[in-house]
Design goal:
Number of helices: 17
Strand content: 15-25%
Oligomer: single chain
Radius of gyration: 22 Å
Bound molecules: ligand G3I
Largest sheet: 8 strands, parallel, barrel
Helix content: 25-40%
Structural class: alpha/beta
Length: about 400
């Protein structure tokens, strides 16, 4: 104890004379304090040298990372049957050395999947390749990944609803998406949260409504889904209220929401604070991930003005960074407390928290027990072509999502 200070003063924060006395020093500190994952997309060549300016900034400011490219299908399984985890392993080494978390991006996409596209010819090969890929990559990384983009960009654009015509769908059929989620739960168990991730669905619009409808059906059927990713490839003029309302309606279904690939073209400080504000208003908004560290390394181009750092040095955009720290430091403590409780939920338990409307009618209680199929390990179901058991009647309304455990 410092005997020169009065004991009452010892309870006060240090540096009380500073205007930033209560303000965390870094984005990471601010995010940690409110139970938020604050992440960046990166690559092994960027974080492989732990003492580089890039790696030092990434570890200081972020508590989560995701591979920008190196865990996609054609990076991890190319050709089919030949697995390569080196990129993901190298990023995980950085993540683990710095006590960060990691997202997994992605199992199923129409893009960067050339090896799968060349090998998938029909439903049977498609399902086999899909399952083997998820078993292998998911099995390798399962204790390392917090959130998995099982499905990436699968939803039709606009309001038409339904699934995009990517090779997984045209060869397997619409149930490829359900199967990928079921295979993932089996491969990963309850180690990580399973997501569907999409673009241009960040606010309330026809596309996000069709994702909402799809997620509702998954929950009703017992297909395991824990969260929805909104990519947030945005431009200046962010509409906080619109994005906040969208996050909320997925929360009403019991779902996590992660903002997964944020960049904001020609961003102003107000854009970053609006997007962060939309997240902070919702306890189910759990991750805020920028799609890269610097404009110089962005897929959009070095002049996009879209990320939190500039140049190859990298140089922090302090206005953006300080505004985000300030927003997080002033987050509503009630919502923060709810978020901290929400993030403790076990993967696979979404249905327990879905709003009543999904499973109940106002007057008659639970919706038809026999009408809602559950894919169960129970003795009644024989294994079908998808590697799932036949639908059986739910054992209880609470069992949805829990019946599908690793076999
Ligand atoms: O790896 C090859 C390399 O061998 C070759 O020499 C070089 C020549 O151009 O290309 C390299 O591949 C590039 C790859 O990134 C890996 O760096 C591709 O050209 C390039 O097109 C590819 O771009 C990625 C893009 O996905 C592909 O669709 C971006 O880096 C990545 O940021 C972007 O990420 C996607 C998300 O996964 C999903 N949502 C949209 C987002 C932005 O497009």
């Amino acid at each position: 104890m410092n005997r020169h200070l009065h004991p009452a003063l010892l309870a006060l924060p240090l540096f009380v004379s500073s205007p930033w006395a209560q303000t965390p020093a870094t984005l990471r500190d601010a995010a940690d304090a409110i139970g938020l994952n604050f992440g960046l997309a990166t690559n092994s060549f960027q974080v492989g040298n732990a003492s580089s300016a890039y790696a030092v900034a990434a570890a200081a400011q972020f508590n989560l990372a995701v591979c920008e490219n190196e865990m996609k299908f054609e990076s991890t399984e190319n050709p089919i049957g030949k697995f390569n985890y080196s990129g993901g392993d190298a990023v995980y080494k950085f993540v683990s050395a710095n006590k960060m978390k990691m997202r997994g991006h992605n199992f199923v996409w129409g893009g960067q999947s050339s090896s799968a596209q060349a090998a998938v010819h029909d439903r049977a090969t498609g399902l086999r390749i899909l399952k083997t890929h998820i078993d292998s990559v998911g099995g390798h990384f399962k204790t390392k990944i917090l959130e998995w983009d099982v499905l990436n960009e699968i939803t039709n654009d606009g309001g038409s609803g339904g699934l995009k015509n990517i090779f997984w769908k045209t060869n397997i059929g619409d149930d490829y998406a359900d199967s990928a989620l079921v295979f993932s739960r089996r491969a990963i168990g309850t180690n990580g949260y399973l997501y569907s991730n999409d673009y241009s669905a960040d606010g309330v619009n026809a596309k996000s409504t069709s994702i909402l409808n799809m997620a509702t059906k998954w929950i009703q059927k017992g297909v395991p889904i824990d969260g929805i990713g909104f990519q947030c490839h945005l431009s200046t003029g962010i509409n906080k209220a619109d994005i906040s309302a969208n996050i909320k309606r997925f929360g009403d279904l019991g779902l996590r929401v992660s903002l997964t690939e944020i960049d904001i073209k020609q961003a102003k400080t107000a854009d970053w604070t609006a997007l962060m504000g939309a997240c902070l208003e919702n306890y189910n908004c759990v991750s805020f991930v920028t799609w890269g560290l610097t404009d110089a390394s962005s897929w959009i181009g070095s002049t996009c003005g879209c990320l939190l750092y500039n140049g190859s040095t990298p140089a922090p955009k302090t206005d953006f960074i300080n505004a985000l720290i300030d927003a997080m430091a002033h987050a509503d403590p009630t919502i923060t407390a709810k978020r901290k409780a929400f993030i403790q939920r076990t993967p696979g338990t979404t249905a327990l928290y879905a709003r009543n409307a999904v499973f109940r009618t106002p007057s008659s209680g639970w919706l038809g027990a026999a009408a809602v199929p559950l894919y169960s390990n129970g003795a009644k179901g024989a294994v079908d072509i998808l590697g799932r058991n036949q639908p059986v009647a739910p054992r209880s309304p609470w069992a949805a999502g829990l019946g599908i455990l690793p076999q």
